[in-house]
Amino acid sequence: MQLFPLLSLALSLAYSQAVLGSSSDSYVRFPVQKLANVPGMGSQDVSNVFKRDDVLNSTLINAVGMYVVKVEIGTPPQTAYLQLDTGSSDMYVNDADSPYCVLMSYGSGYASTDNYELTATATELPSSTISSESYSTLCAYWGTFSVGNSSTFKYNDTQFDETYGDGTYYRGTYGTDVVSLGNITLESFSFGVANNTENQGGILGISLPAGENTHSLGGAYNTTPFEYENFPMALKSHGKIEKIAYSLFLNEPKAHFGSILFGAVDKSKYSGQLYTLPMLQAYDTLDSVSPGMFVTAQSVAVLNGDSGNKTVSKVRFPVLFDSGTTYSSLPTEVAHAIGKSFDGKYSSGDQGYTFDCSKVKDTLLSIDFGGFNISANISNFVTRTKDHCLLNIEAADSGFVLGDAFLVDAYVVFDLESHEVSIAQASFDDKKEEIEVISDRVPGAIRAPGYSSTWVYTPGSPIGTGDFYNVSWTSYSGYSEYQSLVATAVVSSSDSSGGSDSSSSSSSSSSSRSAETTTEKHNAGDRLYQSSFPFSLASFLSYFLL
After folding, report:
1. What are the structural domains of the chain?
2. 3-state DSSP call for residue 9?
3. Has 85 been annotated as catalytic?
4. 322 annotated active-site
5. Which pTM does this prediction carry?
6. What confidence score (pLDDT) does residue 456 get?
7. Which one from 322, 350, 409, 526 is the annotated catalytic residue?
8. Where is the Peptidase A1 domain (predicted)?
9. Rounded to whole angstroms, what are the CA distances from 101 to 104, 142, 307, 328, 527?
């Protein structure tokens, strides 16, 4: 079959249309490739995420998008396309010899994992039957890594066991090797090689180091938690950037490429003021889920020039900006209020609100983050069918997320050292670049008027139902290494400029550890690659080549 070469050709040609990676004056820029209607690009079968009927599932599959970067690993280099994820912290790539990918490489029909003996670095995989007719191309499509074919790879005897909220997982062993993105090369970079997974592709996590699997949130699984230099940290230690910060521009929905700037901002990519918010510790202890880059949402409104503006919620809640998920998850009462604002009717079969599609025209979902609003086109959150529209905002009790549907209309700067997030309305105008390096504070950013009015977890109350009051952070005993994150949210002065008055740093060790398995569970955000999507090669190639 010639399918593998054609798929590789499509990705290669798509990348040749953009600069693969460039660095100048202490910043690094990478194109972020936007994929749509391609195989394995949701974290799981969309029917499992949204639980819709078959017609709606097909529409959701076509609407699903994801953002990937091209990475080369090892000596000689092996290519993989990894999903860019602001909601996790580790880099994982699939082992070319993993039973899952080996099975997906042969034949059609069904393949069972029963006859494969897994290595001691992974938990035993349950007996399962997988349709390789649907999956036969996917591991090769996204790219795998063969440790035996790299002369510079070294295992460091630290195991990982990462399970996401949707049940998908990566299991295997950490190691180090040469990793390159564009013309940026990192020597002895730490990442995980997954030899037990049901995901067809890898992931590049760029969140806080405290979210790494080695910094296990379940102490019973890891008696010696530690952090290592993940990708953003490594860029600074290698002298590529001055501060561990990056700005994300996903671009308008129909665009093929977005961009990410490490160590800089591009003022041409946003309109209005860039406002800064403190990151939140959204959980009372580290035993729940990994720390993420949460901020406070103050209120939610639906804006329409014809029917008027409606404030649907004034409840504060913590929300995570997550490029690794295509959906959004909001508090139950907020999600229901949004649906009702369209005169929608809740469908138990679709598990969501349905309404007349005419309601979508010229309508925005606007969120107040503390004295400023970011608005997203409501059509980003809607699935259209022949008869009606369906609102794709999940009602949840915890783990609130704003994914790509919201982020396409926002320009977001993540400052991992000062533990702050700066946000502005994205601009899709074709303007000359105005790139400024982030050396201390984020250029052009000021503290939001509501910087100090943040959601705070109330011990003993479920997330999302606790008291809401002005920030008054307390330390959590037993987790001294995490105090720096908590401390940065304290309002120490009336300074209105962007950025914290002091930045914190947590030293990380990348030295080998004795074999230890860590388990981390993420409740927020779906992840990629567990879906037997219908796939048209012709439509896929035309997407990139026309």
Report:
1. 3-18+68-241+516-545 (2.40.70.10), 269-487 (2.40.70.10)
2. helix
3. yes
4. yes
5. 0.72
6. 61
7. 322
8. 67-424
9. 5, 11, 52, 30, 18
